[in-house]
C-alpha cells in the first residue's frame, strides 16, 4: 500500500471491480474518455478485466499497473495507474479516474498522482511519465501545472464532446524534473484532512 495524506493506493481488488460498472458508465467516464459517451454492460466489463488479467501474464515489455484509490476511511474512490509501461523506452503512460464525482476538486487526485509518480520514478526506474487529456478538462490541466508536467503536444480539434470540438493534449514529466513527493507536498502545502467532501463536484 502507498500511503498519502488523503488517499492510499492499494491493489485494484474486488471492492474496486464491483464499482467498475458504475464508474464506467457515469460522468467520470465522459471526462476520462475525452467526451465519449458509451454504455458498458457488466459482461463487457468482466470480459475486459479477464483480457487484462490474461495479458498481464504474457511475457512482453508493455504492461500496466493498476491501483485502487482509497480514501483514508476505506472508501473505494477510483483508479490510478500506469495504462501502458514500456520497459524498453522506460516510459509510463498514466491513467486516472476518480469515479465518485463528489470527491473531484478536493485534492484527492493530486494526492494520488504524487504517490503514483514516486512509485513510477523510484520503484520502476522509469525516465518519463506522460498522459493525455483534452482541453475541456480543467481539473487535469490544473493538476499538470501544479505537479510540474509540461504540455508537449496539442492536437487541435481532435476530441468531440457533446457537439463541441476540443484539443487533445499530451503532458510529460521527465525524471530529472520530478523533485519527489515530499518536496511537492511541502511546495503545495498539502495536509491531512479528516472530513469527507460535501456532495456536489466542483
Ligand atoms: C482528474 C482527476 C483525477 C483529478 O483529481 P481531483 O481530485 O479532482 O484533482 P485535485 O482536486 O487534486 O486538483 C484539481 C485542481 O483543479 C481545480 N479545479 C476544479 N474544478 C475546476 C474548474 N472547473 N476549472 C479550473 N480548475 C478547476 C481544483 O481547484 C484543483 O486546483 P487547486 O488545488 O489549485 O485548487 C478527477 O477530477 C477525475 O477523476 N475526474 C474524472 C475523470 C478524469 O477526468 N480523468 C482524467 C483523465 S486524463
The helix/strand class is: alpha+beta
CATH class: Alpha Beta
CATH homologous superfamily - what is it? Gcn5-related N-acetyltransferase (GNAT)
Beta percentage is: 25-35%
CATH topology: Aminopeptidase
Small-molecule binders here are:
coenzyme A
Mean residue pLDDT: 92
Unreliable residue stretches: none
CATH architecture title: 3-Layer(aba) Sandwich
| Number of distinct helices | 7
Helix fraction, binned, reads 25-40%
Strand order of the largest sheet: 1-2-3-4-5-6-8-7
3D architecture notes:
The protein is α+β, with helices and mostly antiparallel strands and 202 residues long. The protein has a single domain, classed as Gcn5-related N-acetyltransferase (GNAT) (Aminopeptidase). It is 32% helix and 33% strand. It has an 8-stranded mixed sheet. A hairpin with a 4-residue loop joins strand 4 (76-86) and strand 5. The two termini are 28 Å apart. The protein binds coenzyme A (COA). Coenzyme A is lined by residues 28, 31-32, 78, 96-98, 104-110, 131, 133, 137-140, 142-143, 202.
List keywords for this structure.
single chain; 202 residues; alpha+beta; Aminopeptidase; eight-stranded mixed beta sheet; 7 helices; globular; binds coenzyme A
Amino acid at each position: 500500500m502507498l500511503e498519502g495524506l488523503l488517499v492510499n493506493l492499494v491493489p485494484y481488488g474486488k471492492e474496486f471491480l464491483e464499482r467498475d460498472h458504475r464508474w464506467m458508465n457515469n460522468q467520470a467516464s465522459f471526462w476520462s474518455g475525452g467526451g465519449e459517451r458509451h454504455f458498458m454492460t457488466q459482461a463487457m466489463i468482466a470480459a475486459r478485466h479477464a483480457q487484462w488479467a490474461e495479458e498481464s501474464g504474457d511475457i512482453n515489455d508493455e504492461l500496466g499497473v493498476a491501483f485502487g484509490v482509497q480514501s483514508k476511511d476505506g472508501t473505494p474512490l477510483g483508479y490510478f495507474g500506469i495504462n501502458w509501461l514500456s520497459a524498453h523506452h522506460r516510459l509510463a503512460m498514466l491513467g486516472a479516474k476518480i469515479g465518485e464525482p463528489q470527491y473531484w476538486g478536493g485534492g484527492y487526485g493530486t494526492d494520488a498522482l504524487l504517490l503514483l509518480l514516486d512509485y513510477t520514478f523510484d520503484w520502476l526506474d522509469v525516465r518519463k511519465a506522460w498522459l493525455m487529456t483534452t482541453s475541456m478538462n480543467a481539473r487535469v490541466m490544473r493538476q499538470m501545472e501544479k505537479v510540474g508536467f509540461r504540455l508537449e503536444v496539442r492536437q487541435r480539434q481532435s476530441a468531440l464532446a457533446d457537439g463541441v470540438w476540443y484539443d487533445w493534449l499530451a503532458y510529460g514529466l521527465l525524471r530529472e524534473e520530478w523533485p519527489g513527493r515530499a518536496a511537492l507536498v511541502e511546495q503545495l502545502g498539502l495536509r491531512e484532512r479528516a472530513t469527507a467532501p460535501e456532495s456536489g463536484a466542483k
